[in-house]
Amino acid sequence: MKIRVAYTKKKEARYIAHLDLTRVFDRALRRTGIEVAYSEGFNPHPKIAFGPPLPVGVEGEREYVDIGIKVTSDNDEHSFVDKALQLLQKQLPEGIEIVDFSILPQGNKALMAVINQACYRAEVPFLEPIDVHAFTAACEDWLAREEVLSIRNQKGKKVTRNIRPFVRTISVLSQESPLRYWLRLDIKTGNDGSVRPVEVLESISTLEGIKIDLDGLFIIRDGVYILKDDGEQLTPLDY
Amino acid sequence: MEKIDNVTLRRRLDRILPKVMKPGRYVGGEWNIIRKDWEKADVRMAFVFPDVYEVGMSNLALRILYGLVNSYPHYLCERAFAPWPDMEEKMIAEEIPLYSLESFHPLRDFDVVSFTLQYELSYSNILNVLRLSDIPLRSSSRGDDDPFIFAGGPCAYNPEPLAPFVDIFLLGEGEEQLPAVLEIIRTSKDKGLSKEEILTELVKLQGIYIPRFYDFTYNTDGTIQDMVVDSRAPQVVTKAVMKDFDSAYFPEKVIVPYTEAIHDRVMLEVMRGCTRGCRFCQAGMIYRPLRERSPDTLLEQAEKAVKATGYEEISLVSLSTGDYTCVNRVLEEMMDKLTSQKVSVSLPSLRLDSFDVKMAEQVQKVRKSGLTFAPEAGTQRLRDVINKGVTQEDLLKTTEAAFRAGWSNIKLYYMIGLPTETYEDLDGIIEQARMVLETARKAGRRNAKVTVSASSFVPKPHTPFQWVSQDSMTVLREKQDYLKKRLRDQRIKFLYHDIEGSFLEAVMARGDRRLADLLEWAVKAGCKFDGWSEHFRFDLWQQGMNELKIDPHFYANREYSVSEILPWDHLSPGVLKGFLEEEYKKALAEVVTPDCRGKCGLCGVCPDIAKTVTYHL
Fold it and tell me: Which residue of A193, B106, B113, B345 sits 20 to 30 Å from the alpha carbon of B432, by its own alpha carbon?
């Protein structure tokens, strides 16, 4: 049986790298005694698959993972999974909390194949005071650009790419002080890649001349979604 | 550096963590971490592994001692590692001193800062850790308010280059002695004793070496003239050893890192010590005598450890696991219990002559990992010199069995620069690699690959080869090139070590206190992570040697005289110097010494230090 689990990734757990997460869940599951489905073959690996990677250091409020488990009792599926996840919760690192789940129907598509939207909130400190109109204008100027090139290190190589198409919206959520704003960023994600919010803010800082204290950013991804062509936005649990 | 509390420190870290490589290494919070109440602990100890997190978290001593010290209500033990240079740079910029991963307290707030000395090339990191902690480097510059600097581990058997920096060394095994040391510090703190008074108490313990109680004078040729010992301290410090190893503390709830460690698995120590007596091997001498753990204890530990950690692999560790008397039974029963949980068992150190197919089949039930063997030398003559009692027949029989059992990659370890080595011995390595490939062909594995790894011999204290000169760097390079040219084959991968690193290792391994100035100079010049080729700055070390007029060849490339006072003569693993000398003579005469389980070699350890313990089926 395949289940889809929504969880948080906060506090120290936000420094767990995406590539290490499979091991973290596999070991937590082994500690619970829940039987996980394994792939066949020479080096069997657990059937655990995640949604789009959360950048290291960013907190996640609703991240998703699909896990294949073996049903080992005759109880109804829902209460079996519910109990299993209660056991799993006790074995997960501080900061990872299971918030919801669903049982997947046969043939459901992988998270990475369907998720195409990631929504972030960012607490942005500035090095000098800025009023909200000036800042909004700067964001609009940035969004009005057709192409925004950004250089990023990929396996030791410098790769230049256009990050503009990944950014759907940037808006001001609230203003803590002229030195500290909360922003919302809606970003395209999925198998065709994505952009990290910090890259976007770095770029705004450089191109629009806004003095952002980039070392002091605090970023939260509050959800990832399936944005349909008609504009409807579904969570991976509803899909 | 200003004083900083743990809450401020943690907050400052968040500014730099997103910008460093693998930040998970610097925040702790792992599964099974032990966080004790800082205020309630009487003695606070930091355990520092002087290398990067992934290496340190693989260390068995850390796992044992961390669990052990924290199992006492009065003590607290927290971990720290050497930050990778990108992190170090940012920590300095943000004025963050080195801190512990449990409570984020700066190391200088601890009562004891302890280091494990696993390899000589980590010495610069030890001083660098002190520097990053804002703790004065030299014992003589530290006051009663500074922590005690404590160190143990294999290099403590000749820690002389570190003598001026470390207050207390522990020779031997720490399961009993470390709590004893902490207890003395605890009661002395209550009484308000000074550091000097506490050291006077500590020196009475078995295995405790307080370097400031020993002074050396030197002859004009540079050798040691005499050693003057303070009346409070013993003339010779003999190691501490666990007589009852079976019931020695073993941590089942080990920390499970989130960032992958080098050895990221349950490690069960099946035995301590080795009976083979390879003449180059320091571990084989200093961990004597052999003490096995009972199969029942191991099986119980395996089950508990998997339950507590969720690890998918158990490694049966020791110096030579194939020699463990009950290895087949333990393997079989462990696999029976754990296969259904998808847990595999691995045997990291197998001798060629103790490997059998049954064992091979057991360990590959869940996952197949690589297989490594260490013939160490290419000819029977040289294997006799080093007392590595394996034959070419053993090797070929074993590799053929392994290829038949399904392996296709085999790694062979050799050393170059061994005493009496000639080019004939190097030809032997090449020939052996080819013959192993031939066994693969016979076993029907045409796509088999053989990795040949050749490290450079480093003479180590307390071994029969402690007096031997290391080959010069030029000679070692010629030998490496010789092999490189002749091992050009698509099916053979040749790995070799950095020669300058092996040279510095030899200098430090057989060094004396006069090298402390060089160490300090090098660290101030920026040397760190000397065991990592991307950070090793041999040019700086050479500059330091020139400026301080220290001749490194005096330590690495000189045949020490059997009659001279060695820098480590006052430190004893229980093995007699006379035994080592006999073994050295036998080596030159190409005479082997049999495994001491069959016939006692009279090394001096049994029965006074401890007795050999084995189990039978």
Answer: B345
